[in-house]
């Protein structure tokens, strides 16, 4: 599969952005009262970019992710264009990873990674090869015959990330992928994710409530606030492409974090 | 582990023996294990054919309960109308003490092996239906989102996620049902029968043949243990360790 070795392209080259959101809104009705989960979200994502969506609970970041996944229909008037002019099939071209690994307990690791390929009816042999490559990429080549219960939480989440990539989706959506891990494992997984992202060249949108995580991972950070839910800012993170954990101790990193704290009213 | 289990049983037999011998308990109240097992040598009791009859009733009732329990759980999972219409009836039916149905079943079907299979079935059916139904619905909502985002069909969700996910629940239901099926078959034999270990117990009770009664109880338990063991063995083959429910 070429996508695994493809180098990550930086900015778009003058064409339409890979994802364009304009005035995206979503109103839920619960017990007769309307509840605005997302209002007026407008931002672009370039092909190969990793964009963080950050904000407190109730800011609509998960709803926005589900809208992008095609699981929720946004309100009338919302504009969403994915693909940047290239055909984009919502079922086929989206990979998802959630906070919980959600592995099937009765399937071995390799079979778990293959679930999307299985559902999409992709060729068995090629998919297996690709799943093995991906397990290699996430550092679990030795674990393919194991059952989920034999793996640690961090390893299970790596399997879930490999699964989100197995059908070679154009867009990968991650909802708090490391939220259930302990702090140290989480930091290690952040570094891992950056490596996986660069190696795979995927466009990734990652939802998190960790401000440090959002800045560390994102090339851009979209800040959402709660009560009422609205989009507060779209910040370009101008930090070196090679990111190590040391970066978190630098002045620039602190400045970005401070800015986001301010936007969220947490000075 | 097996050797410890054997040892525990041997110790219990020894305790039984000592209580009877040292306590000078009359044989018609509690015979010693020696006297109890000695009845096995007596052809008068027809141990083999009575055990076969009871085993057929227990296994028959159990398998019927498993097949129909799973069948209805599937129906209720696939059809909301079926669930809405039949489930309240079945819940009410479940409230009826099944033992009370025994005399009615005998009126409708006359007594015999088939009748006792039906009685064992009515008792063993509900745990299987309820646990399987629960298991089929137990899918994590986010996992459903994950496969729905891939536009999975209902059939794919059913075969890949719901059905395998329900197996641990089915097996925990089957374990409960195995115990209940034994009770059901014996109740059936008590109410009306012409063969089986429960029937034999009533026959020897009038002669205060306590040793034979004890032996019948032991054999009934043994049949139950075999059934339970088969279910557990099948479970360890089919269900991954972590997913099992104890």
- Give the H and E element order of chain B: HHHHHHHHHH
Mean pLDDT of chain B: 90
Strand order, main sheet of chain A: write it out: 5-6-7-3-8-9
Rough shape of chain B? Answer: globular
Low-confidence stretches of chain B: none
Give the largest interface: A-B, 25 and 22 residues
At the third CATH level, what is the topology name of the largest domain in chain A? Rossmann fold
Fraction of residues in β-strands of chain B: under 5%
CATH topology of chain B: MetI-like fold
Largest sheet composition of chain B: none
CATH homologous superfamily grouping of chain B: MetI-like
The proportion of residues forming helix of chain A, as a percent range, comes to: 25-40%
Number of domains of chain A: 2
What's the CATH class label of chain B?
Mainly Alpha
Strand content of chain A: 15-25%
Total beta strands of chain A:
9
Low-pLDDT runs of chain A? 1-12
Sum this structure up briefly.
With 267 residues, chain A is of the alpha/beta class. Chain A has nine helices and nine strands. Helices cover 33% and strands 23% of the residues of chain A.
Descriptive labels:
heterodimer, A: 267 residues, alpha/beta, Rossmann fold, 2 domains, six-stranded mixed sheet, three-stranded antiparallel sheet, 9 helices, globular, disordered N terminus, B: 246 residues, mainly alpha, MetI-like fold, 10 helices, 80% helix
Secondary-structure map with pairings?
The complex is a heterodimer of chains A (267) and B (246).
Chain A: E1 19-30, E2 33-45, E3 50-54, H1 61-68, E4 79-82, H2 90-93, E5 94-97, H3 109-113, H4 115-120, H5 124-137, H6 153-165, E6 171-175, H7 183-200, E7 203-208, H8 211-217, E8 220-225, E9 230-236, H9 251-263
Parallel strand pairs in A: 3-7, 3-8, 5-6, 6-7
Antiparallel strand pairs in A: 1-2, 1-4, 8-9
Chain B: H1 2-23, H2 33-38, H3 47-78, H4 80-95, H5 98-109, H6 113-137, H7 141-149, H8 154-191, H9 197-205, H10 210-238
């Amino acid at each position: 599969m070429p996508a695994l070795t493809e180098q990550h392209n930086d900015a778009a080259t003058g064409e339409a952005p890979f994802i364009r959101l304009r005035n995206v809104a979503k109103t839920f009705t619960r017990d007769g009262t309307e509840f605005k989960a997302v209002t007026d979200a407008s931002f672009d994502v370039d092909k190969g970019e990793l964009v963080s969506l950050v904000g407190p609970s109730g800011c609509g970041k998960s709803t926005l992710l589900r809208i992008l996944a095609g699981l929720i229909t946004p309100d009338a008037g919302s504009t969403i264009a994915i693909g940047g002019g290239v055909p984009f099939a919502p079922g086929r071209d989206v990979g998802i990873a959630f906070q919980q690994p959600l592995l099937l307990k009765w399937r071995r690791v390799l079979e778990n990674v293959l679930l999307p390929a299985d559902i999409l009816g992709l060729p068995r042999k090629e998919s297996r090869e690709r799943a093995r490559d991906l397990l290699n990429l996430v550092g679990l080549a030795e674990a393919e015959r194991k059952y989920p219960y034999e793996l640690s939480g961090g390893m299970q989440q790596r399997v879930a990330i490999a699964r989100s990539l197995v059908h070679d989706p154009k867009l990968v959506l991650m909802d708090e992928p490391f939220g259930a891990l302990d702090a140290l494992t989480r930091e290690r997984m952040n570094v891992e994710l950056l490596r996986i992202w660069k190696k795979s060249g995927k466009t990734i949108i990652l939802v998190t409530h960790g401000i440090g995580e959002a800045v560390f991972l994102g090339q851009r950070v979209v800040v959402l606030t709660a009560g009422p839910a609205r989009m507060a800012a779209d910040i370009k993170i101008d930090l070196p492409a090679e990111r190590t954990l040391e970066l978190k101790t630098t002045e620039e990193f602190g400045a970005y974090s401070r800015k986001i704290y301010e936007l969220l009213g947490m000075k | 582990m097996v050797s410890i289990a054997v040892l525990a049983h041997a110790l219990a037999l020894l305790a039984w023996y000592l209580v009877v011998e040292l306590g000078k308990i009359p044989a018609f109240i509690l015979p010693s294990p020696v006297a109890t097992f000695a009845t096995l040598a007596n052809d008068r009791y027809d141990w083999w054919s009575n055990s076969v009859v009871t085993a057929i009733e227990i296994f028959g009732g159990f398998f019927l309960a498993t097949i129909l329990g799973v069948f209805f759980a599937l129906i209720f999972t696939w059809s909301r109308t079926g669930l809405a219409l039949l489930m309240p009836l079945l819940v009410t039916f479940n409230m009826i003490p099944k033992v009370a149905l025994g005399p009615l079943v005998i009126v409708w079907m006359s007594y015999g092996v088939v009748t006792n299979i039906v009685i064992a079935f009515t008792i063993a059916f509900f745990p299987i239906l309820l646990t399987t139904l629960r298991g089929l619905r137990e899918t994590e909502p986010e996992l459903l989102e994950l496969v729905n985002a891939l536009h999975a069909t209902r059939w794919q969700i059913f075969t890949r996620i719901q059905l395998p996910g329900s197996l641990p629940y089915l097996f925990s239901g089957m374990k409960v049902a195995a115990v209940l099926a034994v009770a059901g078959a014996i109740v059936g034999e008590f109410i009306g029968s012409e063969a089986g270990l429960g029937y034999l117990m009533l026959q020897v009770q009038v002669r205060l043949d306590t040793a034979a009664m004890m032996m019948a109880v032991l054999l009934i338990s043994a049949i139950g243990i075999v059934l339970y063991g088969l279910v557990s063995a099948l479970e360890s083959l089919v269900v991954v360790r972590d997913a099992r429910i104890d």
